[in-house]
Each structure stands twice: as C-alpha cells, then as structure tokens.
Write the structure tokens for this entry.
Amino acid sequence: MYSVEELKQKINKEIDAWSEELNQKEQKELYAPVKYALGMGGKRLRPVLLLMTANMFQEEIDNGLTAAIAVEIFHNFTLLHDDIMDKAEMRRNNPTVHKKFSENKAILSGDAMAFLSYKLLLKCRCEKLFEITQLFTETALEVCEGQQYDMDFENRQNVTQAEYLEMIKLKTAVLIACSLKAGAQLSDADDETAKLIYDFGINLGMAFQLQDDLLDTFGNQQTFGKKIGGDIVANKKTFLLIEALEKANTEQKSQLKKWLAKTDFNPDEKIKAVSGIFNQINIKKRTEEKIDFYFFSASEILQKIQLEEKRKMPLKNLIQKMLGRKF
C-alpha cells in the first residue's frame, strides 16, 4: 500500500503536469492565478484521502488520479472565493490570489477552476463515474450552501451551536466525505461500505474544521499559514464565539457584544481582548472536547468497515497525525 508521502508525490506530479498544460493556453492571464493557487501547495488532504481510500480496496490507484486532482482543484476554487469574501490577505504564508492579482481576476479564474475540476473528473475511467459525478455535483452545491450560511451568520448575533455545526458540515465536511466515498466508488466498494466511509468522512470533517477554528485563535501563525485571529476580527460565528456567548457571565458577554458591534477598532487589540475572554471561560478545552467527540465517532465508524486492519492502518495513521488524537 502507498504511504501518504508517496500519494502526495503522485498528486503533486500530476498537478505540475496539468499546470504545464495551462501554459499552452492562449489566455495566460486567466490561468496564471490558477497555477499560483495550486502552486502554493497545502496538505493535499482531500486528494490524498481519495487515493488512500481507493488503495484500501485495490492496489492499482492511477485510475483515480484525475478524480483526486479534480477534488483538489475544486477545493482550491472554494478557498480562492472564500478569501475574496473574507477579505483575507494571506493563505499558506503567501498573499491570497486576489491580493497578488486583482479581485476581478481572482473571481474569473476561480470560476474557471470550478469548470476545470469537472473537465478532469469526466476523464476518469471507471464503472461508477455517473455516481461519482452525481456525488461531486451534490457536494459542490452543499459547499455553496454552507458558504451562504457562513455569510448569513455575519449579520446575526443569535447563531446557535446547532446552526453552526450544520454550516461547517456543508462548508467543509461534505467535501472530505465526498473525497473518501469517491475513492471507495472508484475501487468498486459495495454501497453499504461506501456509505460508512462517507459517514466517517463527515465526522472527520467536523473535527477537522473545529480544529481549524481553534487554531485560528490559539495556533501558531507560521505553522497555521495565515494570520492568527482572523475569525475574531471578522466576527466569524465560530464554535469558540458561540460557546463563549453561551457560557459567559454578564460582564464577559457585555464585553464580547461590545467588540462584535464595533466597526472602528485596532485588530490586535480586539484579538487580545476577545481571546482573553475565551481563556477566562476555558473555551480552548471546550472546543477540544467537541473535536474529540467527532474524532471518536469517526473512529467507531471506521471499525465497522469490513476490511483487514492493515488495509485501514494508513488512513488511521493519517487521521491520528492530522488531528493529534489516538484511536
């Protein structure tokens, strides 16, 4: 079976070759931001998960490479547009696409990436291509729905924990689940097993996004790849903020609402004040407990999949490393 590094090498080699094809296009201005976005690297988590799942069921995985790259291109398209909406300046320790090029170029190139992902997906040769394309399309719509929820929440002060969890399920978890299920379908896994793998991916995606939210406030900028405290500055209704508003005493809640209402403020001062309240309420621990809930739910589902343990071990090891949790 392939290691994570071997899978990443395959993926990066395929992306490099595909990016070189873009150089032959006449409209270089359109494709330069695409190359830049993909060239920033990243964990390549979703394509790795797709190929790793395929490898659980069969040794030959090269037929899944185009689907894996399609998922990665689509994911980067969503990041490109998210960064515009969030007015983010850094991504993976580099200027975001709209900062390096322009907002208009980033929007158009992002649109192109969405269609390029479908073009690549349709090159995949497998018996369940129709089912995979259906899954991919439904997932793409769900991701957009999740982003709409995220934007809606920016103007609301009464977002519930249940609403937030539904939002991150759509915005983040479904694409991770789609990647895993597509890998199983590429290898002709039975429907019941593919469903278990999808459910595993949903729980994994929930844990992953909650950890991302946690790192945005309590992480290290160098390893996190973007400025710490961005969610606080943007009034993002993260699990941390929702939990803090629910658990805060009268004075703490008053201070949080004051910062949420301010339109003219020093970003560093706001980050320091809000994260200070988070520390008073022990929000870091509360968030870690929620991450553990989803992580252990995922591990229980993985146990139900009828495969030899050695076939599941690469996936277990990756998830353990990714979330810093043990099965």
Remarks:
- Strands lie at 90-91, 94-95.
